[in-house]
């Protein structure tokens, strides 16, 4: 079973590596995030970013090992004109921090995508987990 799981994970990783990505991100919240609410958060983030056009996002939600609930990993391709602060502030807004205050800050780790680091394979491994959800928007 482990060998089959590894083959499936590698296949997903190869598939994700065929796309162009601009960013790799980890998204957490200060509140407990259920699996259905993780999907709504990913959908909301994509919806707000896609108003600009030309956005693609693959996300995977998995149980959060540091506290109860889930967190997300995402590969994103966004137009170069979108600055880092816009991506961060949009996440804050859709995750409930409407005033963008530090006391309500939800963690976002946003990095430029480097295909040599294997983020596609990292996301691919969550697809095969039992308690996970994932999707791709803006194919």
Task: Give a description of the structure.
By secondary structure, the protein is α+β, with helices and mostly antiparallel strands. The protein has a single domain, classed as 2-Layer Sandwich (Alpha-Beta Plaits). It is built from 4 helices and 5 strands. Strands 4-1-3-2-5 form a 5-stranded antiparallel sheet, sandwiched between helices. α1 packs across α4. The protein is globular. The N and C termini lie far apart (31 Å). The mean pLDDT is 87.
In short:
The chain has 139 residues and is an alpha+beta fold. The protein contains four helices and five strands; from the N terminus they run H-E-H-E-E-H-E-H-E. The protein has helices at 2-17, 35-49, 84-94, 119-127, and strands at 23-27, 56-63, 70-77, 108-112, 133-137.
């Amino acid at each position: 079973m482990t060998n089959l799981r590894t083959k499936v994970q590698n296949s997903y990783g190869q598939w994700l590596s065929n796309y162009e990505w601009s960013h790799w991100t980890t998204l957490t919240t200060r509140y407990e995030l259920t699996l259905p609410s993780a999907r709504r958060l990913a959908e909301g983030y994509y919806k707000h970013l896609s108003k600009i056009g030309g956005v693609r996002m693959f996300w995977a939600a998995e149980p959060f090992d540091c506290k109860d609930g889930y967190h997300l990993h995402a590969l994103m391709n966004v137009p170069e004109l979108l600055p880092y602060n816009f991506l961060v502030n949009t996440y804050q807004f859709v995750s409930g921090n409407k005033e963008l205050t530090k006391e309500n800050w939800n963690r976002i780790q946003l990095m430029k995508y480097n295909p040599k680091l294997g983020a596609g394979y990292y996301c691919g491994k969550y697809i095969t987990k039992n308690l996970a959800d994932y999707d791709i928007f803006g194919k």
